[in-house]
Amino acid sequence: MDPLYIILIGLALVLIGVALPLLMVLDMLTPTYFLGFVSFTTSVGGVLLGLVGASRHRHGRGRRWD
Prior knowledge:
With about 70 residues, the chain is mainly α. The protein is about 75% helix and about 0% strand. It contains 2 helices and no strands.
């Protein structure tokens, strides 16, 4: 899988992890423990996927020692 797609998926997960608590604070969603856990999990997962994608992107374009 292309590292750029991994980074974009991670960005989408982080944005979902930010949007869910915002919607809960604005009373558009009923705050539950499950939604809190889902928002935390998507946020952490997105950050981890972004780091993995960035490292794979860097690894693929590293210096070549001949």
